[in-house]
Amino acid sequence: MFNIDAFKKELIENVAKLIEARAAYANSARTLRQLGDSDADRHYLPALNNAFASILKVHFERVEKDLTAEYSNGLPVEITTDYSFYTYEDYHNRNSGRFLNYQRNQELLKIDKESLHSQVLALETMIHQMPWDKIKKHFDDQCENVKSEGMRNAVQKVNRYFRIARGRDKPTFKKNSYVISRYYSGHAYDLHTDVEELGAVIQSLAPITTEASVNVGDSLQELRSALIENCQTRTPIPMRTRFGKGSQMDITVFKSKITFSLGASLVEAIQSATIMYGTDEDIDSVMALVARAEAA
């Protein structure tokens, strides 16, 4: 969960360093100009209001990264910050309720010309006034819901990749397997996106199969490795190369397509995860798949 005290402590320490560094930068630039270095004028010190917003953004991004690493458990989900916590409201929208409102923006612009002590004090006061209860709730809610959000993202990625999501592609059912094909050209310049997409699917499928105790083997990883080699050597995967023969993820490469044959246990695992974590649209798609399977 989000630790307010630790975050505030670090932020207050760093705004003091910020003011000190800005003063040192300004003094150094002044000295360089006096010595005749005209290039010193090319680098401008941002106004204090913008510097404060930037340091807030950096600290919140660090929180995003740390909380995502702690709570995501490998799921395709990220904990994010409401950008209104570190950006100013627009002049034309001065009643937005945002903490960094127009008035605080103007206050920092005035304080920029005051003593270093006044600048540090002003920023520390502003930090203490931030809506910490709201900020903590924003992060804590995401931490608590990260599994359901991550699993929803996972089933949606898997459903799209294997054409379970509603679309024009029609799967076929053979010997209790769900069979779909994806285009494959063998041309290296076509494959970079495919490699990235397949990597995301491997990541997304893992928690689904783990939760259902279904072993899909290494066929997807083997296919991805073969596609990477295809990119590097510009040599297509040989026709009728097969990965995971007889497994829950049986893959065959043809001249212009790659066919995926998903076993009954794997399809059931995807269906169960979709019904438990998916949106209404996701559930409708998977139920339509069930109906097609029963009619096959």
Task: Detail the topology: elements first, then pairings.
Blueprint: H1 4-34, H2 48-71, H3 102-111, H4 116-129, H5 132-161, E1 172-174, E2 177-183, H6 188-212, H7 219-233, E3 242-243, E4 249-253, E5 257-262, H8 264-277, H9 280-295
Antiparallel strand pairs: 1-2, 2-5, 3-4, 4-5
Helix pairs in contact: 1-2, 1-4, 5-6, 5-8, 6-7, 6-8
What would your notes on this structure say?
By secondary structure, the chain is α+β, with helices and mostly antiparallel strands. The protein folds into two domains: 4-130, no CATH class; 152-295, no CATH class. Helices cover 60% and strands 8% of the residues. The chain is built from nine helices and five strands. Strand 1 (172-174) and strand 2 form a beta hairpin. Helix 1 (4-34) packs antiparallel against helix 4 (116-129) and helix 6 packs across helix 8. The longest helix has 31 residues, at 4-34. The radius of gyration is 27 Å and the shape is elongated. It starts with a helix and ends with a helix.
